[in-house]
Design goal:
100 residues; mainly alpha; 67% helix; globular
Length: 100
């Protein structure tokens, strides 16, 4: 899958978790910044979130593509990075992703 498609998939995973498991304030805030459906060009409300995602996922990519199973690992790294850098509380969702 292309890195851009992996971003959309990652957003869907987080949105699903938020809507169905835990509506945490931290995750809601991040989703608002990341939302690729807010504008017609499918770019996030805060472009820095895509750049941050790209910096993480590129480590898992080969020739601009990523394996589906690696998206969860990249997502855990992305959330851990945001937790460290910005003080978000993502412990619960990271633990959930590790179990699934």
């Amino acid at each position: 899958m292309l890195i851009q498609d992996a971003y959309l998939m990652m957003f869907e995973i987080l949105s699903d978790y938020y809507l169905n498991i835990n509506k945490s304030e931290s995750l809601g805030s991040l989703l608002g910044d990341m939302d690729p459906y807010m504008f017609s060009d499918r770019k996030p409300a805060d472009p820095a979130t895509y750049n941050d995602w790209y910096d993480v996922i590129v480590k898992y990519a080969e020739d601009g593509e990523i394996k589906d199973e690696d998206i969860i690992f990249a997502l855990q790294d992305f959330l851990s990075d945001y937790q460290k850098r910005f003080g978000f509380d993502f412990k619960e969702i990271i633990a959930y992703l590790r179990r699934h």
